[in-house]
């Protein structure tokens, strides 16, 4: 994952530019959400509106000077993959920074620009052990953390800062997910992430009699599709709902976290525009009935478009963090060829047992239902025949007993 700094250098190393602290903080709110702004700025006061307008004007001036779009500026201020990863290991294969980063893909999220690495058959874990899965050796990037101004950003919401690692399935879009889960990696530590995988098989949920039920999509057909083709699936349905309704409420702009799968080249929404969209989407303020109807209708329509994935993967992980001792850190930095003052951090991601939990969901088919119904009726009919026979025998015996008592009287 990544963080946003307040300086960047051109790719050719020719020049470096520093962004004012207030603008870097303003960019955090644009990339994430207006909810991280200080309570004073979240209030719709004259002072807060004036600050947002001035910050936006200053930002537009920087974009004109550098001939960049807002999305390009945020990406430029983000750390590159090579600045983060020193070395990686896939099982017994040790790879340098360039090769490790060649496996990654840039993604735009609510945390800024992040990097995703997908596990493939070539790099799968084949045996148990702490270092038999994915292992990353990460640089100490704490010096790149931007200054946080309490007058702009609510510091109580910035407690967890630094590099973050989040585990997702290969068909999950991380745009919002990274803001809810993940492990913060502190410099000079070993973080082991023990995986627990649950696979939900949902092939059997559609039966022959379910005419309105949409057939699920096998995950094998989703692996190599573009991200915009993945958004309307059950694993990304919440993201699809947000994105579709934001498009309705804010038709003239797009959120930074939606840039990867928006079909148009719309500009990124300003903080004020995003705040208005979120307020209407989550009904945080009193809005017109027409807006509420539009929100409810787009939410229902977007949800109805989500197609179930046949095999859904749910990852849970248990993190253990240990400080790397000085006696280990010194030879480690020498081996990795980094300055001995660098606090290298190590992340080991693995399955402690090569096992996973399998859950199968299914509905009864017509044949199974008829079979069960037939068996039930067979038992009931058989029981009924036995009961009728017992009643018939009872009446016959009763008549015989009565006849035996009446016959002596009739003879006299």
Automatic annotation (TrEMBL):
Keyword Transmembrane helix: yes
Topological category with respect to the lipid bilayer: Multi-pass membrane protein
Keyword line: Ion channel, Ion transport, Membrane, Sodium, Sodium channel, Sodium transport, Transmembrane, Transmembrane helix, Transport
Keyword Coiled coil: no
Stretches that traverse the bilayer: 385-403
GO cellular component: plasma membrane
Entry's localization field: Membrane
Family matches, as InterPro entries: ENaC
An example Gene Ontology molecular-function term: ligand-gated sodium channel activity
Short name of any one Pfam family annotated for the protein: ASC
Family: Belongs to the amiloride-sensitive sodium channel (TC 1.A.6) family.
The protein, known as: Putative epethelial sodium channel-like 3
Gene name, Swiss-Prot/TrEMBL: Enac-L3
